Amino acid sequence: MASSILPRFSLIFYAPPAAVAACKTAIFKAGAGRYPGTGNYTECCWSTPGTGQFRPGDSANPHIGKVGELEEVPEVRVETLCVGEHIARQAVAALKTAHPYEEPAYHVIKLEDF
């Protein structure tokens, strides 16, 4: 199947700065961040720093913070392209393995081709 007709997805995730490189390595190895076409671009993404906030529940095992206490931490938002649903699913699985959080925050958005 030609890449121009495969559905495209945007994978967006949030990670602590120290974990971003490992997360990016994992998703890129799974096929994320590749743009179809003659340029053969790989490992493409966009990143920006920000602040994450969460309060771990009673049964949580947080990587950062304490159960029941509101936590604010520096995080990096990373966005990349996944061409094909199978690549998006592989990238999410790789992210979950590489990410240090008990429940990593991420979004997968199906893109329209205009």
TrEMBL record:
<dbReference type="InterPro" id="IPR036069">
    <property type="entry name" value="DUF34/NIF3_sf"/>
</dbReference>
<dbReference type="InterPro" id="IPR015867">
    <property type="entry name" value="N-reg_PII/ATP_PRibTrfase_C"/>
</dbReference>
<protein>
    <recommendedName>
        <fullName>ATP phosphoribosyltransferase</fullName>
    </recommendedName>
</protein>
<keyword id="KW-0732">Signal</keyword>
<feature type="signal peptide">
    <location>
        <begin position="1"/>
        <end position="21"/>
    </location>
</feature>
